Amino acid sequence: MMDHTLALAAPRPSFALRVMAHPVTRILIGTLLTFAPVPLIMILTAKLVDKPYRVVWPQLLAAAFVWLGYRFYVRRIEGRPMAELALPQAPRELGLGLLLGVALVSAVFGLLAALGVYRVDGVNGVSLALLPPLAELVLVALAEEVVFRGIVFGVTERALGSRAALALSALLFGLMHLPNEGISVLAVAAGCAYGVLQAAIYMKTRRLWLCVGSHIGWNYTVGQVFSTTVSGHAVTAGLVRGELAGAPWLTGGAFGVEGSLISLVVITVAALAWLRPALKHPTLKHPA
């Protein structure tokens, strides 16, 4: 005799819960929680503290709030441990990331020098003036990696898979630079390629520290070592006095060396090297 008892259907989640669970909503909430404290801290410190006393610590304070905001988002909204920014792995992976960033930029300038596009005029020497810019670069790298790799990539990967997350996060990272001075097609392409590299590193390690270190190492070496423009932002004299001279597609023009074809090639090669092992095992290790 057949049992005709109908099983009770599970109640459908409310509209509010469905909205909160939607990937776009999570990306917006995560970005807001993570990034909103940065301008607030900068505005407050500018109003309350005289400029001579606003050196290094406001940027580091804002970076701490980025970390705390992301931790709150991961634990309260996604309901999981924040393994990707676990502190025990930070020193080693930050160091390795810094070395990677320095190596990539050194390869770019080495090739540009071999082509006669970059010429060294001298060395300014090591001084304490080279250290304060690190604070801002730490803030920028941490905020951007948390947003584009931790949130955009992470949420999209859980919703659509690794390849879709890779493409979307890299594209958005490249397009983010559109308002910068001197932007070009090559600059956007290099930004997208760098987004692929960083996403591949995250896929392989499942942590953000190496990405953060690589980001800091890249920006610091371009600006404070080789004394050139970083993503359209002019910098003061760094360690090496040098000059980029040649066609904009080689020098990067007003955007800086990140808009150079050489940078695009070097970043793409590095991205492919990281992408191959990352795509072999793209499964999530910490699903929400």
Strand and helix layout:
Elements: H1 15-21, H2 23-35, H3 37-48, H4 57-78, H5 90-114, E1 118-123, H6 133-160, H7 162-175, H8 185-205, H9 209-225, E2 240-244, H10 248-251, H11 261-280
Antiparallel strand pairs: 1-2
Helix pairs in contact: 2-4, 2-6, 3-4, 4-6, 5-9, 5-11, 6-7, 6-8, 6-9, 7-8, 8-9, 8-11
Give a brief description.
This protein is mainly α. It has eleven helices and two strands; from the N terminus they run αααααβααααβαα.
Description:
The protein has 288 residues and is mainly α. 64% of the residues lie in helices and 4% in strands. The protein contains eleven helices and two strands. It has helices at 15-21, 23-35, 37-48, 57-78, 90-114, 133-160, 162-175, 185-205, 209-225, 248-251, 261-280, and strands at 118-123, 240-244. A two-stranded antiparallel ribbon has the order 1-2.
